Automatic annotation (TrEMBL):
Entry keyword annotation includes Protein biosynthesis: yes
Protein name as annotated: Translation initiation factor IF-2
Keyword annotations from UniProtKB, A to Z: Initiation factor, Protein biosynthesis
GO MF: translation initiation factor activity
One protein family per Pfam: Methyltransf_19
Amino acid sequence: MELTQPAEERHVTERIRTDVAHNARVWNHWLGGKDNYAVDRAVGDQVTGMYPSIGEVARADRAFLGRVVRHLGGELGVRQFLDIGTGLPTVENTHEVAQRIAPETRIVYVDNDPIVLAHARALLTSSPEGATEYIDADAHDPERIIRSVEPTLDLKRPVAVMMLGILNFIMDTNEARSIVRQLMDAVPSGSYLVLTHPTLELGGEGNAAAMRFWNENATPPITARSGEEFTSFLEGLEILEPGIVSCSRWRVDPATGGEAAQVAQFGAVGRKP
Ligand SMILES: C[S@@+](CC[C@H](N)C(=O)[O-])C[C@H]1O[C@@H](n2cnc3c(N)ncnc32)[C@H](O)[C@@H]1O
């Protein structure tokens, strides 16, 4: 059979490993998506067996993303987003939420998983007034990310740097802090840092055992962090109300009763003074 796939796309699909579970694909499985392989579903279901609230964590994290982008775009006038550790396209991606509020909003997505690159077209559906860009890059190299975001983003104007569920894959806390610092140094006053991160301090039965299982059976390795470590990522920033909370409880819409069950995932937003 003749190969009709363009060389660039072949190169991407060759990078996709189907013999080991990958976080972007397992996360997609937990969110009810179809862009995953048998190995991802097997490991994902094992984790769910050990840590039953993981699906709730994934949904709470996505709902937090929606609330934050609506708040930043709608109430605080942010028109540029840098979403690092994007994950596979799903419903209500950052640009869809942001451009519904302000079509001129510009978004750069960054992930290092080839499956996300293979599906990136779904993230590049910008409104004509705005722009979306996808960068295949590693968070361990923030300098490269900073060099690549222009001209889509103007680094002289405020940017919301979103790092949802990704610093937990930077195993060394000092390195994670340094990555955050380099990114926030590159953006001006009035920019924001948006974080979520798993923790063992907010309940979540089976979380520690599930993380050990993950690190033996999947990639990349993950770590939980304490409230103190999480707070250190936001050093020098003004933390928006309601502070550092379970991401499910960050600015819950009063129309939904204003109540939400806690999940074992910190969420917070900091503003660069
Ligand atoms: C838990 S998912 C979170 C997805 C999305 N941010 C959300 O909150 O729904 C983490 C994402 O980070 C990506 N990731 C992990 N390590 C990374 C790294 N070193 N550089 C870039 N992306 C990374 C994974 O491929 C995955 O898509």
